[in-house]
Design a protein that fits this description.
Strand order of the largest sheet: 3-2-1-4-5-6-10
Distance between the termini: 56 Å
Number of helices: 12
Shape: globular
Bound molecules: nicotinamide-adenine-dinucleotide, 2'deoxy-thymidine-5'-diphospho-alpha-D-glucose
Strand content: 15-25%
Protein backbone atom coordinates (compact mmCIF):
# COMPACT_ATOMS: atom_id res chain seq x y z
CA UNK A 1 0.00 0.00 0.00
CA UNK A 2 1.52 3.30 -1.08
CA UNK A 3 -0.77 5.57 -3.05
CA UNK A 4 -4.21 5.85 -1.50
CA UNK A 5 -7.15 7.57 -3.18
CA UNK A 6 -9.62 8.77 -0.54
CA UNK A 7 -12.89 9.63 -2.25
CA UNK A 8 -15.23 11.96 -0.36
CA UNK A 9 -12.20 13.06 1.67
CA UNK A 10 -13.44 16.66 1.99
CA UNK A 11 -16.53 15.59 3.91
CA UNK A 12 -16.95 15.04 7.64
CA UNK A 13 -15.56 11.51 8.22
CA UNK A 14 -13.44 11.39 5.06
CA UNK A 15 -11.52 14.50 6.12
CA UNK A 16 -10.92 13.05 9.60
CA UNK A 17 -9.55 9.94 7.86
CA UNK A 18 -7.31 12.03 5.55
CA UNK A 19 -5.95 14.06 8.49
CA UNK A 20 -5.31 10.83 10.41
CA UNK A 21 -3.61 8.99 7.53
CA UNK A 22 -1.41 11.94 6.47
CA UNK A 23 -0.06 12.24 9.99
CA UNK A 24 0.15 8.54 10.88
CA UNK A 25 1.70 7.24 7.63
CA UNK A 26 4.27 9.72 6.26
CA UNK A 27 5.34 7.04 3.73
CA UNK A 28 1.92 6.85 2.09
CA UNK A 29 0.75 9.34 -0.51
CA UNK A 30 -2.80 10.39 0.31
CA UNK A 31 -4.87 11.80 -2.55
CA UNK A 32 -8.23 13.29 -1.63
CA UNK A 33 -10.69 13.00 -4.55
CA UNK A 34 -13.88 14.95 -3.96
CA UNK A 35 -16.64 16.58 -6.00
CA UNK A 36 -17.08 19.33 -3.38
CA UNK A 37 -20.85 19.11 -3.20
CA UNK A 38 -22.68 21.26 -0.64
CA UNK A 39 -21.28 18.90 2.04
CA UNK A 40 -17.68 18.90 0.84
CA UNK A 41 -15.55 21.58 2.44
CA UNK A 42 -11.93 22.32 1.69
CA UNK A 43 -11.64 24.04 5.10
CA UNK A 44 -11.84 20.54 6.65
CA UNK A 45 -8.45 19.81 5.11
CA UNK A 46 -6.63 23.01 6.15
CA UNK A 47 -4.67 21.12 8.86
CA UNK A 48 -2.93 19.00 6.17
CA UNK A 49 -2.72 21.61 3.42
CA UNK A 50 1.07 21.87 3.58
CA UNK A 51 1.82 18.18 4.12
CA UNK A 52 4.16 16.67 1.53
CA UNK A 53 2.26 13.37 1.34
CA UNK A 54 -1.13 14.97 0.60
CA UNK A 55 -2.79 16.08 -2.67
CA UNK A 56 -6.30 17.26 -3.55
CA UNK A 57 -8.12 16.48 -6.81
CA UNK A 58 -11.61 17.70 -7.57
CA UNK A 59 -13.82 15.13 -9.33
CA UNK A 60 -17.01 13.08 -9.41
CA UNK A 61 -16.75 9.35 -8.67
CA UNK A 62 -19.53 8.77 -11.22
CA UNK A 63 -17.44 10.38 -13.98
CA UNK A 64 -15.50 7.49 -15.48
CA UNK A 65 -12.89 9.52 -17.38
CA UNK A 66 -11.96 11.65 -14.36
CA UNK A 67 -11.76 8.63 -12.07
CA UNK A 68 -9.60 6.75 -14.59
CA UNK A 69 -7.24 9.71 -14.97
CA UNK A 70 -6.82 10.11 -11.21
CA UNK A 71 -6.11 6.38 -10.74
CA UNK A 72 -3.45 6.54 -13.48
CA UNK A 73 -1.87 9.91 -12.67
CA UNK A 74 -1.37 9.08 -8.99
CA UNK A 75 -0.44 5.37 -9.57
CA UNK A 76 -3.21 4.51 -7.12
CA UNK A 77 -2.99 1.04 -5.53
CA UNK A 78 -5.66 1.51 -2.82
CA UNK A 79 -9.09 3.16 -2.82
CA UNK A 80 -11.11 4.11 0.26
CA UNK A 81 -14.59 5.23 -0.76
CA UNK A 82 -16.26 7.69 1.62
CA UNK A 83 -17.94 9.65 -1.20
CA UNK A 84 -21.70 9.67 -0.76
CA UNK A 85 -24.80 11.71 -0.41
CA UNK A 86 -25.21 11.06 3.29
CA UNK A 87 -28.26 12.85 4.74
CA UNK A 88 -31.44 10.79 5.22
CA UNK A 89 -33.80 13.81 5.17
CA UNK A 90 -32.40 15.02 1.84
CA UNK A 91 -32.82 11.51 0.41
CA UNK A 92 -36.52 11.70 1.29
CA UNK A 93 -36.88 15.08 -0.45
CA UNK A 94 -34.75 14.23 -3.55
CA UNK A 95 -33.38 10.68 -4.01
CA UNK A 96 -31.74 11.35 -7.44
CA UNK A 97 -28.32 12.46 -6.20
CA UNK A 98 -28.19 9.40 -3.91
CA UNK A 99 -28.57 7.03 -6.86
CA UNK A 100 -25.98 9.02 -8.84
CA UNK A 101 -23.24 8.88 -6.18
CA UNK A 102 -23.99 6.04 -3.75
CA UNK A 103 -25.03 3.54 -6.45
CA UNK A 104 -23.67 4.58 -9.88
CA UNK A 105 -20.60 6.32 -8.42
CA UNK A 106 -19.67 3.32 -6.28
CA UNK A 107 -20.04 1.07 -9.34
CA UNK A 108 -17.85 3.31 -11.57
CA UNK A 109 -15.17 3.48 -8.89
CA UNK A 110 -15.16 -0.30 -8.50
CA UNK A 111 -15.13 -0.88 -12.23
CA UNK A 112 -12.29 1.56 -12.91
CA UNK A 113 -10.44 0.22 -9.86
CA UNK A 114 -10.65 -3.28 -11.33
CA UNK A 115 -9.37 -2.13 -14.74
CA UNK A 116 -6.46 -0.33 -13.10
CA UNK A 117 -5.52 -3.39 -11.01
CA UNK A 118 -6.21 -1.80 -7.62
CA UNK A 119 -4.76 -3.94 -4.81
CA UNK A 120 -7.33 -3.11 -2.12
CA UNK A 121 -10.69 -1.31 -2.10
CA UNK A 122 -12.46 -0.25 1.10
CA UNK A 123 -16.15 0.63 0.82
CA UNK A 124 -17.36 2.78 3.70
CA UNK A 125 -20.93 1.83 4.55
CA UNK A 126 -23.38 2.29 7.40
CA UNK A 127 -25.45 0.53 10.07
CA UNK A 128 -28.54 1.83 8.23
CA UNK A 129 -28.31 -1.10 5.78
CA UNK A 130 -29.67 -3.38 8.56
CA UNK A 131 -32.70 -1.13 9.09
CA UNK A 132 -34.62 -0.74 12.29
CA UNK A 133 -33.77 -3.24 15.03
CA UNK A 134 -36.09 -3.60 18.04
CA UNK A 135 -33.82 -5.49 20.38
CA UNK A 136 -30.31 -6.94 20.40
CA UNK A 137 -27.42 -6.08 18.11
CA UNK A 138 -26.96 -6.37 14.33
CA UNK A 139 -24.26 -8.81 13.25
CA UNK A 140 -22.37 -8.58 9.97
CA UNK A 141 -24.24 -11.54 8.41
CA UNK A 142 -27.70 -10.20 9.25
CA UNK A 143 -29.98 -9.48 6.32
CA UNK A 144 -30.31 -6.02 4.80
CA UNK A 145 -33.60 -4.18 5.40
CA UNK A 146 -32.85 -0.54 4.45
CA UNK A 147 -35.79 1.82 4.95
CA UNK A 148 -34.84 5.22 3.49
CA UNK A 149 -33.67 6.01 -0.06
CA UNK A 150 -30.29 6.87 1.52
CA UNK A 151 -30.01 3.50 3.31
CA UNK A 152 -31.11 1.62 0.17
CA UNK A 153 -28.55 3.48 -1.95
CA UNK A 154 -25.77 2.57 0.52
CA UNK A 155 -26.92 -1.07 0.56
CA UNK A 156 -26.79 -1.11 -3.25
CA UNK A 157 -23.24 0.32 -3.32
CA UNK A 158 -22.12 -2.23 -0.79
CA UNK A 159 -23.70 -5.14 -2.66
CA UNK A 160 -21.92 -4.05 -5.83
CA UNK A 161 -18.62 -4.08 -3.91
CA UNK A 162 -19.38 -7.62 -2.74
CA UNK A 163 -20.19 -8.68 -6.33
CA UNK A 164 -16.86 -7.27 -7.60
CA UNK A 165 -15.05 -9.24 -4.93
CA UNK A 166 -16.85 -12.52 -5.66
CA UNK A 167 -17.05 -12.21 -9.46
CA UNK A 168 -13.73 -10.56 -10.33
CA UNK A 169 -11.66 -11.54 -7.32
CA UNK A 170 -11.02 -7.92 -6.30
CA UNK A 171 -9.64 -7.45 -2.79
CA UNK A 172 -12.46 -5.61 -1.04
CA UNK A 173 -13.31 -4.83 2.58
CA UNK A 174 -16.41 -3.06 3.90
CA UNK A 175 -16.97 -0.99 7.04
CA UNK A 176 -20.39 -0.27 8.56
CA UNK A 177 -20.16 2.67 10.93
CA UNK A 178 -22.75 3.85 13.41
CA UNK A 179 -23.97 7.46 13.91
CA UNK A 180 -20.87 9.60 13.87
CA UNK A 181 -20.40 13.00 15.53
CA UNK A 182 -17.52 15.41 16.09
CA UNK A 183 -15.88 18.56 14.69
CA UNK A 184 -16.31 19.58 11.00
CA UNK A 185 -19.73 17.88 10.56
CA UNK A 186 -22.06 19.70 8.18
CA UNK A 187 -24.67 21.38 10.40
CA UNK A 188 -27.68 19.54 8.98
CA UNK A 189 -27.08 16.40 11.12
CA UNK A 190 -28.50 16.20 14.64
CA UNK A 191 -25.48 17.10 16.82
CA UNK A 192 -23.99 20.03 14.85
CA UNK A 193 -27.43 21.28 13.76
CA UNK A 194 -28.80 21.40 17.30
CA UNK A 195 -25.55 22.72 18.82
CA UNK A 196 -25.30 25.62 16.35
CA UNK A 197 -29.04 26.41 16.52
CA UNK A 198 -28.90 26.38 20.33
CA UNK A 199 -25.88 28.72 20.33
CA UNK A 200 -28.15 31.18 18.46
CA UNK A 201 -31.04 30.45 20.85
CA UNK A 202 -33.21 29.05 18.05
CA UNK A 203 -35.82 26.21 18.27
CA UNK A 204 -34.60 22.60 17.99
CA UNK A 205 -37.01 20.54 15.83
CA UNK A 206 -36.99 17.09 17.44
CA UNK A 207 -38.81 14.50 15.30
CA UNK A 208 -41.79 12.71 16.90
CA UNK A 209 -41.40 11.71 20.54
CA UNK A 210 -37.59 11.93 20.40
CA UNK A 211 -37.25 8.42 21.83
CA UNK A 212 -35.49 7.04 18.73
CA UNK A 213 -32.16 5.43 19.58
CA UNK A 214 -28.88 5.91 17.79
CA UNK A 215 -25.47 4.44 18.62
CA UNK A 216 -22.97 7.34 18.73
CA UNK A 217 -19.37 7.04 17.51
CA UNK A 218 -16.77 9.82 17.75
CA UNK A 219 -15.37 10.75 14.33
CA UNK A 220 -11.70 10.02 15.14
CA UNK A 221 -12.69 6.54 16.36
CA UNK A 222 -14.53 5.99 13.07
CA UNK A 223 -11.45 7.09 11.09
CA UNK A 224 -9.20 4.76 13.10
CA UNK A 225 -11.69 1.93 12.53
CA UNK A 226 -11.50 2.37 8.77
CA UNK A 227 -7.68 2.43 9.01
CA UNK A 228 -7.75 -0.84 10.99
CA UNK A 229 -10.09 -2.62 8.55
CA UNK A 230 -8.11 -1.29 5.58
CA UNK A 231 -4.89 -2.79 6.97
CA UNK A 232 -6.11 -5.94 8.69
CA UNK A 233 -9.57 -6.78 7.33
CA UNK A 234 -10.05 -10.02 5.40
CA UNK A 235 -11.03 -9.56 1.76
CA UNK A 236 -14.75 -10.13 1.19
CA UNK A 237 -15.64 -9.34 4.81
CA UNK A 238 -17.68 -6.52 6.33
CA UNK A 239 -16.94 -5.04 9.78
CA UNK A 240 -19.30 -3.14 12.06
CA UNK A 241 -17.76 -0.01 13.58
CA UNK A 242 -20.16 0.44 16.49
CA UNK A 243 -19.88 3.25 19.02
CA UNK A 244 -21.52 1.11 21.73
CA UNK A 245 -23.01 4.34 23.06
CA UNK A 246 -26.76 3.98 22.57
CA UNK A 247 -28.72 7.12 23.41
CA UNK A 248 -32.26 8.40 22.79
CA UNK A 249 -32.41 11.60 20.69
CA UNK A 250 -34.19 13.46 23.48
CA UNK A 251 -31.30 12.70 25.86
CA UNK A 252 -28.66 13.82 23.36
CA UNK A 253 -30.63 17.03 22.76
CA UNK A 254 -31.06 17.73 26.47
CA UNK A 255 -27.34 17.22 27.07
CA UNK A 256 -26.39 19.61 24.23
CA UNK A 257 -28.63 22.28 25.82
CA UNK A 258 -27.09 21.66 29.27
CA UNK A 259 -23.56 21.98 27.90
CA UNK A 260 -24.49 25.31 26.33
CA UNK A 261 -26.42 26.57 29.34
CA UNK A 262 -29.61 26.88 27.26
CA UNK A 263 -33.21 26.12 28.36
CA UNK A 264 -35.13 22.92 27.53
CA UNK A 265 -37.91 25.16 26.20
CA UNK A 266 -35.93 25.41 22.93
CA UNK A 267 -37.00 21.81 22.15
CA UNK A 268 -39.95 21.58 19.71
CA UNK A 269 -41.51 18.17 19.05
CA UNK A 270 -42.31 18.36 15.33
CA UNK A 271 -43.97 15.86 12.92
CA UNK A 272 -41.79 12.79 12.49
CA UNK A 273 -39.39 11.94 9.65
CA UNK A 274 -41.16 9.67 7.12
CA UNK A 275 -40.17 5.98 7.56
CA UNK A 276 -38.09 6.95 10.61
CA UNK A 277 -36.04 4.02 11.96
CA UNK A 278 -36.60 3.67 15.69
CA UNK A 279 -33.34 2.06 16.71
CA UNK A 280 -29.93 1.08 15.34
CA UNK A 281 -27.49 -1.01 17.36
CA UNK A 282 -24.59 -3.20 16.21
CA UNK A 283 -22.10 -5.59 17.74
CA UNK A 284 -18.47 -4.38 17.48
CA UNK A 285 -16.97 -7.82 18.26
CA UNK A 286 -15.69 -8.58 14.78
CA UNK A 287 -13.80 -5.26 14.41
CA UNK A 288 -12.54 -5.64 17.99
CA UNK A 289 -10.99 -8.97 17.02
CA UNK A 290 -8.98 -7.07 14.35
CA UNK A 291 -7.59 -4.81 17.08
CA UNK A 292 -9.95 -1.80 16.86
CA UNK A 293 -11.14 -0.15 20.08
CA UNK A 294 -13.09 3.07 20.31
CA UNK A 295 -11.28 5.57 22.54
CA UNK A 296 -13.99 8.18 23.15
CA UNK A 297 -16.87 7.68 25.49
CA UNK A 298 -20.00 9.60 24.52
CA UNK A 299 -20.08 12.09 27.40
CA UNK A 300 -16.50 13.25 26.84
CA UNK A 301 -16.87 13.18 23.05
CA UNK A 302 -20.10 15.21 23.07
CA UNK A 303 -18.65 17.83 25.40
CA UNK A 304 -15.52 18.23 23.23
CA UNK A 305 -17.73 18.46 20.14
CA UNK A 306 -20.08 21.10 21.51
CA UNK A 307 -17.07 23.16 22.67
CA UNK A 308 -15.59 22.87 19.16
CA UNK A 309 -18.72 24.39 17.59
CA UNK A 310 -18.67 27.14 20.24
CA UNK A 311 -15.02 27.92 19.46
CA UNK A 312 -15.21 27.61 15.66
CA UNK A 313 -18.01 29.86 14.49
CA UNK A 314 -15.74 30.87 11.56
CA UNK A 315 -16.26 27.33 10.21
CA UNK A 316 -20.06 26.97 10.42
CA UNK A 317 -21.46 30.51 10.13
CA UNK A 318 -20.47 30.79 6.48
CA UNK A 319 -22.14 27.41 5.75
CA UNK A 320 -25.46 28.51 7.25
CA UNK A 321 -26.28 30.82 4.32
CA UNK A 322 -27.62 30.45 0.75
CA UNK A 323 -28.45 26.83 -0.16
CA UNK A 324 -28.43 25.82 3.50
CA UNK A 325 -31.23 28.28 4.28
CA UNK A 326 -33.25 27.04 1.28
CA UNK A 327 -32.91 23.48 2.57
CA UNK A 328 -33.81 24.57 6.13
CA UNK A 329 -37.02 26.12 4.81
CA UNK A 330 -38.01 23.02 2.83
CA UNK A 331 -37.27 20.65 5.69
CA UNK A 332 -38.46 22.60 8.73
CA UNK A 333 -40.79 25.53 7.90
CA UNK A 334 -43.99 23.42 7.79
CA UNK A 335 -42.88 21.14 10.60
CA UNK A 336 -42.19 24.03 12.95
CA UNK A 337 -45.45 25.73 11.95
CA UNK A 338 -47.38 22.46 12.57
CA UNK A 339 -46.30 22.23 16.20
CA UNK A 340 -46.77 25.93 16.96
P1 LIG B 1 -20.50 13.99 4.15
O1 LIG B 1 -21.82 14.25 3.52
O2 LIG B 1 -20.02 14.88 5.24
O3 LIG B 1 -19.36 13.95 3.04
C1 LIG B 1 -19.53 13.34 1.80
C2 LIG B 1 -18.38 13.80 0.90
O4 LIG B 1 -18.51 13.14 -0.36
C3 LIG B 1 -18.39 15.31 0.62
O5 LIG B 1 -17.08 15.82 0.73
C4 LIG B 1 -18.87 15.40 -0.83
O6 LIG B 1 -18.38 16.53 -1.52
C5 LIG B 1 -18.34 14.09 -1.40
N1 LIG B 1 -19.09 13.63 -2.58
C6 LIG B 1 -20.44 13.53 -2.70
N2 LIG B 1 -20.75 13.08 -3.93
C7 LIG B 1 -19.57 12.88 -4.58
C8 LIG B 1 -19.24 12.38 -5.86
N3 LIG B 1 -20.19 12.04 -6.76
N4 LIG B 1 -17.93 12.28 -6.21
C9 LIG B 1 -16.95 12.65 -5.32
N5 LIG B 1 -17.23 13.13 -4.09
C10 LIG B 1 -18.52 13.23 -3.72
O7 LIG B 1 -20.58 12.47 4.65
P2 LIG B 1 -19.97 11.80 5.97
O8 LIG B 1 -20.93 11.97 7.07
O9 LIG B 1 -18.56 12.21 6.11
O10 LIG B 1 -20.02 10.26 5.51
C11 LIG B 1 -18.92 9.69 4.79
C12 LIG B 1 -19.25 8.25 4.47
O11 LIG B 1 -19.50 7.54 5.67
C13 LIG B 1 -20.51 8.09 3.61
O12 LIG B 1 -20.28 7.04 2.71
C14 LIG B 1 -21.59 7.70 4.62
O13 LIG B 1 -22.57 6.91 4.01
C15 LIG B 1 -20.78 6.91 5.63
N6 LIG B 1 -21.28 6.92 7.01
C16 LIG B 1 -21.61 8.10 7.63
C17 LIG B 1 -22.02 8.07 8.96
C18 LIG B 1 -22.39 9.34 9.69
O14 LIG B 1 -22.94 9.25 10.81
N7 LIG B 1 -22.12 10.53 9.17
C19 LIG B 1 -22.10 6.85 9.66
C20 LIG B 1 -21.76 5.67 8.97
C21 LIG B 1 -21.34 5.72 7.66
O1 LIG C 1 -26.49 5.46 11.45
C1 LIG C 1 -25.52 5.93 10.55
C2 LIG C 1 -26.09 7.10 9.80
O2 LIG C 1 -26.20 8.17 10.75
C3 LIG C 1 -25.27 7.53 8.61
O3 LIG C 1 -25.23 6.48 7.67
C4 LIG C 1 -25.84 8.79 7.97
O4 LIG C 1 -25.00 9.24 6.94
C5 LIG C 1 -25.94 9.86 9.04
O5 LIG C 1 -26.55 11.01 8.51
C6 LIG C 1 -26.73 9.36 10.24
O6 LIG C 1 -28.13 9.17 9.92
P1 LIG C 1 -29.29 9.62 10.92
O7 LIG C 1 -30.52 9.84 10.13
O8 LIG C 1 -29.37 8.72 12.09
O9 LIG C 1 -28.64 11.02 11.41
P2 LIG C 1 -29.30 12.46 11.68
O10 LIG C 1 -28.25 13.30 12.32
O11 LIG C 1 -29.98 13.00 10.48
O12 LIG C 1 -30.42 12.12 12.76
C7 LIG C 1 -30.10 11.50 13.99
C8 LIG C 1 -31.40 11.27 14.73
O13 LIG C 1 -31.95 12.55 15.09
C9 LIG C 1 -32.47 10.59 13.88
O14 LIG C 1 -33.25 9.72 14.70
C10 LIG C 1 -33.35 11.74 13.40
C11 LIG C 1 -33.25 12.75 14.54
N1 LIG C 1 -33.35 14.15 14.10
C12 LIG C 1 -32.50 14.61 13.16
C13 LIG C 1 -32.58 15.91 12.69
C14 LIG C 1 -31.63 16.41 11.63
C15 LIG C 1 -34.32 15.00 14.68
O15 LIG C 1 -35.08 14.59 15.56
N2 LIG C 1 -34.40 16.29 14.21
C16 LIG C 1 -33.59 16.77 13.23
O16 LIG C 1 -33.75 17.95 12.84
Amino acid sequence: MKNILVTGGAGFIGSAFVRHMVERYPDYNIVCFDKLTYAGNIDNLLPVDDAENYRFERGDIADRATVSRALRDYCVDTVVNFAAESHVDRSILDPDAFIHTDVVGAYILLDEGRKHGIERFCQVSTDEVYGDIDIGLSLEDDRFLPNSPYAASKAAGELMARAYCVTYGMDIVITRGSNTYGPYQYPEKLVPFFATEAIDHRPLPLYGDGEQIRDWLYVDDHARGVDCVLHFGVSGEAYNLAGENQRANIDVTTRILELLGKPASLIRHVPDREGHDRRYAMSAEKARALGWRRQFDFDAGLEATVRWYQDNEWWWRKIKTGEYLEYYKRQYAERLAAQA
